Amino acid sequence: MGDESEWIKLPIDQKCEHKVWKARLNGYEEAAKLFQKISDEKNPEWSKYLGLIKKFVTDSNAVAQLKGLEAALVYITNAHVAGKTAGEVVSGVVNKVFNQPKVRAKEMGIEICLMYMEIEKTEPVQEELVKGLDNKNPKIIVACIETLRKALGEFGSKIVQLKPIVKVLPKLFESREKAVRDEAKLLAVEVYKWIRDALRPPLQNINSVQLKELEEEWVKLPTSAPKQTRFLRSQQDLKAKFEQQQATGDEEGDDEEDDAPVVDAYELLEPVEILLKLPKDFYDKIEAKKWQERKEALEALELLVKNPRLESGDYSDVVRALKRVIGKDSNVLLVALGAKCLTGLAAGLRKKFQTYAGHVMPTLLEKFKEKKPQVVQALQEAIDTVFLTTTLQNLSEDVLAVMDNKNPSIKQQAALFLARSFCHCTPSTLPKSLLKPLCAALLKQINDSALEVRDAAFEALGTALKVVGERIMNPFLADVDKLKLEKIKEASDKVELAHGKKSNASKEANVGATGKGCSASSSGDKADASATRTGVLSKKTSANKSAGASKKMKAVVPPSGPSGKGKKAAEVKEDLSFDVCEEQAAAVLPATCLQQLDSSNWKERLASMEEFQKGVEVTEKKLLPCQALVRMLAKKPGWKETNFQVMQMKLHIVALIAQKGNFSRISAEVVMDGLVDKIGDIKCGVKAKEALTAIAAACSLPWTAEQVVAMAFAQKNPKNQSEILNWLAAAIKEFGFAGFNVKAFISHVKTALAATNPAVRISAVALLGVMYLYMGAPLRMFFEDEKPALLSQIDAEFEKMQGQAPPAAIRRVAKHDADEEEATEEQDDEENGNVQDLLPRTDIGDKITSDLVTKLGDKNWKIRKEGLDELCAILNEAKLIQPNIGDLPGALKGRLNDSNKILVQQTLAILQQMATAMGPNIRQHVKHLGIPIITVLGDSKNNVRAAALTTLNLWVEKTGMKEWLDGDDLSEELKKENPFLRQELLGWLAEKLPTLRTVPADLGHCLPHLYSCLEDRNGDVRKKAQDALPTFMMHLGYEKMNKVASKLKPASKDQVLTALEKAQAVVPAKTVAPTKTSSKSNAGAARPVGAASARVNCASANDETDSFKSDAKKGKSTGVASKLKSAPNKKVPSKPNVKDDDDRSGPLFIIIPNAKEQRVKDERALKVLKWNFTTPRDEYSEQLKTQMSSCVAKWVQDEMFHSDFHHHIKALTVLLEHLENEFEGTVACLDLILRWLTLRFFDTNTTVLMKVLEYLKLLFTLLSKEDYHLTENEGNSFIPYLINKVGESKDVIRKDVRSILNTLCKLYPASKMFNLIMDGLKSKNSKQRAECLEELGSLIEVHDLNVCQPTPAKALKEIASQIGDRDTSVRNAALNTVVTVYNICGDQVFKLIGNLSEKEMSMLEERIKRSAKKPSTVSVKQEEKTQRPPGTNQNAGMPRKGCEDVPSKLKIMYRTYRIQARCNNAQSASESTHTIPREFQLDLDKIENDNHAGRCELPDLVQHQLDELYEPVCIPEPKNRSVSPHYDEMHGTTDSTINFVVSQVASSEINTSIQALAQIDEVLRQESKVDAMSGHIDQFLIATFMQLRLIYNTHMADEKLNKSEILKLYSCIIGNMITLFQIEPLAKEASMGVLKDLMHGLILLMLDSRLEDLDEGPQVIRSINLLMVKVLEKSDPTNILSSLIVLLQDSLLATPNNSPKFSELILKCLWRVIRLLPNNINDVNVDRILLDLHNFMRVFPKERLKQMKCDLPMRTQKTLLHALYKLLGPKIMDHLTLIENKNESELEAHLRRVIKHSVGLSGGKTDSETEKGGSTIEDKESKAKISETLAEIFKKIGSKENTREGLAELYEYRKKYSDADIEPFLRKSSQFFQNYIERGLRLVENEREGKGRISSSSSSAGFSSPPDEMPYVASSMSIPPSGNGEELGPAVYLERLKILRQRCGLENNSKHEERQPPTSLLSKPTVPTVASSSELLHNKLTHLRDSRECTQEQESHPPTQTNSSTTSATNLDDLKKRLERIKSSRK
Fold this sequence. Notes:
The protein is globular. The protein starts with a helix and ends with a helix. The longest helix is centred in the C-terminal third of the chain and has 24 residues, at about 1450-1470. By secondary structure, it is mostly helical. It is built from 103 helices and no strands. Helix 22 runs parallel beside helix 24 (about 430-445) and helix 62 (about 1180-1190) packs antiparallel against helix 66 (about 1230-1240). Helices cover about 60% and strands about 0% of the residues.
């Protein structure tokens, strides 16, 4: 008792573990009671005992163990966690319970096992029981067998897996223990109940006595299928049903037959390896000359292939040997034996034999020429077995090839083979696309002269009829006569299909109400046919039968009986006689009408036609006798009618009858000849085309087109032929291209192309262009043999259509029967399939000779290469090939393993070529050639693996993924422990699997190897395996993968299970298959495009997109939903929909104040999930739905979050329609809308994606117009997912995404965009990486290196790392981006990108060299061209590179106003009747109104009588800018139009100027229109800087004017000029005078202190800075250099001491031009430059320059001369031809000194100054001292302590000796040290001079922005007083007066005053100056005025410059007064 007291008070769980057995016994009893009391199966108490249950059943004490078993059973029955203990508990039961002597313990153990099965743990239980069968204890074996038997008997074969049981049965029968054998016998009987005869093959090798006993037991079993009597917890509904049946005694259970799965005995067998068992001399013997030896080899093989299941392997050699025996062996016995071996091989391999099926099929069919029965029978068995391993689709080409064979035996056996094959087919596996060519071949054979061939063809056709039904077969049997039709029907009745009764029934249901389907009962067939049969098979001869029109049948009859929807009047098959027609016509037409039809009086005939039309209009459709009426119309004179009015009416009636009645093809044939004859008639042609269109709608366009084209080209009238082709082109756009017989149709087009009449050829080419929209690039292959000239026309037409989407069909063929409609749609879909299938293909089988194959396998690599080259030539010659390639697969497979890697790559290239040439047919070779490509992925060389991956992707593109995933081939490859192979293959699978909707079950075979990859030693393999796990899981499911993982070793198991749990969280969404309804709705009539959609023309629109565009009207907003109501298996409740429609009147969005800000706060506070995921999980969708519930209409939410993609399209359509009306609401909910759109990015439906992109383009365009900027929250939650889509495989999607990214740059900071795009480089998608790199390059090009984040160095290192990518496009994009950086910062890029490999660095250097040779504008234009395809709205997606150097803010303003200007122009264009090109259209009404109300009339000017002030000036009548009577004439040419637009640029009205600038910008941005600006550049630049002066002098001084308007105008002007100076040919047209004034104006603008006070002023200054760089680089070098010299001269004359900044900026410009001289010295007119320098030195001699405070002008002059001399050498003296009195020129003297000094310095390396008194190096120091001094200075710079001192000394040294050459010292140092010295010298210079520098946004610009304290600078037109106080001359005021007069439209009839040069006023030496731009502007405006007045053109010459200054002071005062009055009048 003392012992008991120790444990009695312990808790139950501790008692159960106690060492005392009584304690444990007590614990088990109490535990059992406790378990029964706990009612909640999820009570935490259950978890306490998880680890104890195994101890319950394995207790060492027998008494306690029994109680433990009872307690364990109660626990397993009630606890929800009991399943976790299944494996260990059942293992304990097997090992510790089944060996107990007590029967009760054994029973409890069995019950525990069964209970585990009941709670869904069948697999671990069965696994442990099967393990127990290997135990040495017979008691345990017997108990395990008994448990398995009971489990199978109670749960059935659906729950208990039979394969492992059947596998061990033979072993059990061999046991020495009788008890084991007896129990095994009972188990075998139980298994037989469930699978019947499938058990026989696995047991065929057991003892014959045992097998006999089993047979006896099996016979005794009932024939009825067994039923499941015990059910899983998940099968409680079945349990209730079963109990109900037991209670009611219902034993029928007909539907329970389905419960027993059909078990294939093949699956129960273990595969046998036979390849290793083949005799060693097998291949030698089978080719031996003695037939006995060949027979021995075949007999050995026959024994091996008798194994029912064979191990997979490479059987290509065996198959090749058998093929040779069957095809070529002369001994028929061996042929039969070879066929038997082939049969066994195919039967043993099954689907794995599919690879070889295509190779042996032609041989088997050809061998049917043998007539010996035993051979024929063997061949039949072989060919039937081969068929079962593949599909009829794969074998159809081989069969069709022999259907025309001359040997009747071959034709007969081919037809019989088809008949047998059809028996195994279903309607889904025998589609119409396959059935059509087979039926066509069989229909030829039913007319064959040989009886046996005809009978075989009848049998095949009858079988096909039985399988697919009459509805589908009717079109193919339309022309078969009645007798033969009956034979086909008889054959059909006799056919017994392989699928049995049930399959027939289901097939009948699938076919619908079309007839008998495939039922076995002939009486049923007849009854069924009498009710619903249509078409040929039930046609009768009576004339009054009704028929429905069918698209592909000539003979049609109506549905008879009460099931038809009313009788329809219809056309019978045969033609009606004239009497019958007259009788039927009389029933609907008045008698007078019929009598007057052939009257000789045309008026009576016309009256008759009118009555005829009325009769047709009032007659009901079903009573309209179409054939009778059209025959009446054809009554004399018929189609020879001479009166055009009568004929027009007649043609109109034909169209009316075709539209209204049931118009048949018989009726069409009556009228068609007449229509074709009249289509070329000028008066009747339109009506004839209308009639043909109506007939096409009634009888189908393909048939109509075929008829009319044939008729037209049978005639000789080219006009008719041309018009027929034109009509056809238009009709195809209306009807679509579905159903056309492309081959036949193209033959007609070729006939037209060969016509002698050019109009016919042009029409044919235009028709080809329309066909190209539907067929694409393959269409060109049909015409490659045409003449080059014609082919170039065709190519040009195709190029026009490039990028356009085919228009949606707006017409449909009239349908007369529901069944017929369905059949027609199916046929349309089928015939509109892959166009490549229609292309002519070459059979290269004959060219694959044995010699070629031998070469490919030769030991010498050179000979192997010869073979590959020959093969490549064969493929190049053939272009498109048939799949028959003989023995080539085996030879090419060997070359994929070639030791020579060059040959491997060549083989891969050939395989790529084969895939392209063979098209989809390449799938036949996947197993034999495709899988070896995967093996190449294991190659150690990167380039070989990359080539293999490219080849693999190309093959998959042609074949689809199914063929690759079938079988064990993929798992075998993954099994190989090659790290390269594994990582490449897993990466490829991870990319491909998410795109699939379904995968074969064989994919599961890869799992064990995938798990082993998770533990691979190679880190890359492990990572790829982890990435692939979610993609496997999306198809196989977590449960299946977990089950496979549970069988791993414990060490591996935990790691894999952890990985699986992680993968489960990121499983991608599975692709949803499109419904049948959606496809039908796609093919339906096109719907009008919504209003919002029409505003943005989506560049990537396709048929799929168009088909879902909804009507903009509210009444039709539910059109898509109504279409979906007919979808099968979709319940669409009608009442709720009605209610929803009633609720849709309100707004879409509810604006809640601060709601968006609150959502941001919630996300930051982690109250909601952050919008960041790889693939969206359900919780994200639910969260978004919750957030939308408060601010989005409920019905819109329902559409947005519906599971069907049609509703998503509907939601997007609604959002598009309401975008403008509810713009504020859209902005308020923008973050939610963008997040919802990111969810749609993960949909795989292309239609949804296209609609999303369409919406985004319009949304962002509107946001840009409103100057909205995305918040950081909106950007981060949307842009990364948009960037993911830039890598889409479809070009059209990538273009749209790029367009949206361009627009986004206006809405989101470029630096943040840069970061997000950089993240896109981490993608595995190479296309995405390439596109992201292109975007990064664009950002850097536009925004400079400042945009790079976090730093330029880090960003560029990441970009440069992509240069080594294996994808070519990524490498190129990375190189282009780095080259862009190089163009900005030069050699510094090499430091920024870090270390690159030698190969990558060489690639980069080569690319930089190449880019230096190409102008940058070319790439800009090309990108603009690609981003603006025809038909796109350019406002929707503006390319960034067009304005590449404009800062972002300015660019946004500029682009916005361009868009506004375009919108205004579009409106005016729609109202105007003038045919002015779009880009030049102006709002003339607005201009006119402005003139009436504005400043241009100047009435005060006339009242002041200004004529008295200045005699020569005559005041004319004021001229308004109204449209003159000659306006149209003025705009008749492009030149005059551009003149008009350019004149508006200088307008005083800001908006007018902006509009004009926007239109000119439009011209400059379109490559095709740029040439129009040629010749107008000076005019445009003059107008532009006139506008700049107007802003400077007037607008900036006007306080009332909004300064933001000025900034907008600045941005437009600068943007325009940047665009202009990017186009080098136009930039070089700018003359010197214009460039001088332009640079003058730009420098003044940079120095305008008022500009800095504005918010965006610094941005404008930086933009001007960049513009000046462009001007200096792109202008004509002579003109720009000359203009700068003259401008420097003028500035020094005007302000020698007061404006140092102005002159300094001119000097900097000169320095930059001097740096550019080495590159463009060949383009410089040196004579002219030297003349300008000569003039400059005359005005500023050396002594005068020395007197200036700053010595920079003098140094610059010398530097320029030195640079010229350095480039030209002594030949520079030959360029002084323009200088008069050269001997007196200071320039010549200076040059001679330079030459003399250079000759004196033998090295010629330093520049010496030879002026008098100037210090030179020779005078001061010797060369040795120079070196010593400089060495000392550089030594100081190199030390840390004395760096600054050294730099200061170097600065002083260079200043003192400006010609000193320090280059040798710098060359010895690194680039970094050289840059450091340059920066240091600049710093010292700044410190010494104490002058502020203007900040520059570009390091390469060399300019700076003005300081704040800069005083006001006068206009460039006014010259300030000189330092001597001299007043300004009158020329200045005259010039300003001219400008004001011209701006106001005032005429000036006086002579042009001559302008005096400024130098004359300052008493300086006279210098010849250049005509200023003001004179040029005056000339242009005068020319424009003259053309407006239509007066005689007068050629105005620019006024010449004079040197006299004789204007009197009185005249000067008068001019001042006049100018003041003009100013006051304008105010």
